Amino acid sequence: MSRPITVPRLYIAISMSGLKSNLQDSDSDEEPEFLQYKVVLLGDGTVGKTSIAMRLCDAEFSTKYKQTIGLDFFVKRMVLPGSVHVALQIWDIGGQSIGSKMLGTYVYGAQAVVLIYDITNYQSFVNLEEWLQVVNQTFPAGDKPYMALVGNKTDLFHQQVVKLDKHNKFADDNTLYSYLLSAKTGDQLYNTFYRVAADLAGVVLTADFVEAATVPIRAEVVEYANAPAPSAVEMRPSEGQAPKKKGSKCEVF
Predict the structure, then answer these.
(1) Per-residue confidence at 95, pLDDT binned at 50, 70, 90?
(2) How far are the Cα atoms of 7, 50, 112, 198 from residue 91, in angstroms, in the given order?
(3) 32-215+227-235: which CATH architecture?
(4) Are the C-beta atoms of 43 and 115 separated by less than 8 Å?
(5) Residues 43, 117: contact at Cβ < 8 Å?
(6) How many whole angstroms separate alpha carbon 172 and alpha carbon 250?
(7) Is residue 246 over pLDDT 90?
């Protein structure tokens, strides 16, 4: 009569552990990558931070202004090339929060900070210095998040008071990625945040992908009295323009 073969428990444990590890490795090659980033929107009231977030996340735009008290949250999920799934946690900070002691807490831990101004409101552009100062105080030197400058309301080009050269100079002086968009029409808005997500995830976007991911916008014909014709150069100065570095030319995506 043959005796049953006894296998040491330690050997079984090691074998099962190795099998589980192999299965996980094989599965990980096929499973998509999931990433999550905190993106903070900063700027004065009425510059359109909430409108940008609503257009991006809910594809909606409200013509009625509603002040954001404290902060509000939005989530935008997107899929980048290579099956990279990204969730942007949008922190919409109320414009009156500039003097709040909680502002630094809101900004802390952000992977990206977007400074937003209204191209028809020069003071909102000037006040970006104060918002930027809060970011500089929150993050130690050399450890800052992805920083972007956004000029909103390009649909009101006929009322533009912040000229392109000032926009670009502020972006260059403070090493900010540079964008112009319209929350009302959606023009360049989706492109902007897809590029932000791709930069954070280290993914290279192709022109074909950006075009396919762009949500079509509905054009409205509006006639303004004595309005100058729009300039293509001024309307789209730096779509996805990276910060300039000393001794190198700026890179345009």
Answers:
(1) confident
(2) 57, 10, 10, 18
(3) 3-Layer(aba) Sandwich (3.40)
(4) yes
(5) yes
(6) 9
(7) no
Predicted pLDDT of residue 147: 98
* C-alpha to C-alpha distances, 109 to 42, 74, 116, nearest whole angstrom: 14, 16, 19
Q: Name residues whose C-beta falls within 8 Å of residue 248's C-beta, 6 or more positions apart in sequence.
A: none
Which residues on neighbouring strands pair with residue 180, listed in sequence order? 151
Enumerate the domain spans of the chain: 32-215+227-235
Both tokens of 199, joined, read: 């930069």
Please name which of 182, 185, 201, 184 lies closest in space to residue 239, comparing C-alpha atoms.
182
- For the cut 80, the answer to whether the pLDDT of residue 199 exceeds it is yes
- Kindly indicate the confidence band of residue 71, based on its pLDDT and cuts at 50, 70 and 90: confident
Tell the burial category of 114 from Cβ atoms under 10 Å away from its Cβ (0-12, 13-18, 19+): buried
Half-sphere exposure of 59 (CA within 13 A, CB side): 6
Residue 24 tokens, joined: 């996980």
Read off the pLDDT of each residue in 189-216 and give the average, rounded to a whole number: 89
* Confidence band for 141, pLDDT divided at 50, 70 and 90: confident
Strand pairing partners for 34?
A: 85
